[in-house]
Structure formats: C-alpha cells, structure tokens
Design a protein that fits this description.
Length: 114
C-alpha cells in the first residue's frame, strides 16, 4: 500500500474508532484499539504509521491529537518530535480553555523523548 493510501486508511480507522467510542460513551476504547493496531504492525507499516501519527499531531481535532500524543508516549515515537514542537507552539497562541493543559502535556512529552 502506498503512503497516501495508508494515511487515508489510518484516518478512516481513527474516525470509525472514535465514532464507535462516542456511541459507547467510552472514550478510551478507541485509544486501546489504536494501541493494539500499532503493536501488530510490521516495521514497514510502523514507519508509515509514525508519519500518520505525526500528522495527527497537526490536526485541528483535539481528540485526534490526544490519541496521537498517547501513541507517541506509549511507543516512544521520536520521529514525532518536530510535530510535537509545532503543536506546542500552536497551543501557545490558542485561547481555548484546554490549550494550556494540552501544551503542558506536550511539553512534558518532549522532555521525555529528548
């Protein structure tokens, strides 16, 4: 599967898992299933998944970023560091109530990975 198709499939999977979690009122079920999916990937697919997870960090969707941060932390995805830095900078200028807390979490993760 080419990179673009892989990324599209990742986005579809995340949307489907997130929708299901919302229906079940179990927000962590999507993340649990994403972790299981990631663990089953072979090295080539994991490399593509890492790129997709880094792309999710740049998403406007807070839930997608939450899942991406959790995956980066769980699996120590160091290639996501540039996207984490970008996210931290973006959050510094956002006025949403959760932005300072999300930025604090992202900055702590950066310290862990660096």
């Amino acid at each position: 599967m080419n990179s673009e198709a892989f990324q599209t499939e990742m986005d579809r999977m995340w949307s489907s898992l997130n929708d299901e979690a919302l229906r079940l009122k179990d927000s962590f079920s999507a993340l649990d299933r994403l972790k299981g999916w990631y663990q089953r990937l072979d090295d080539g697919d994991r490399e593509q998944a890492n790129c997709g997870i880094a792309r999710w960090l740049r998403s406007e969707t807070e839930a997608k970023r939450f899942d991406a941060v959790a995956l980066v932390r769980e699996f120590r995805i160091s290639q996501a560091i540039p996207a984490l830095r970008d996210l931290s900078e973006r959050l510094a200028f956002q006025s949403t109530p959760g932005a300072p807390f999300e930025r604090e979490k992202v900055d702590a993760l950066l310290v862990e990975l660096e």
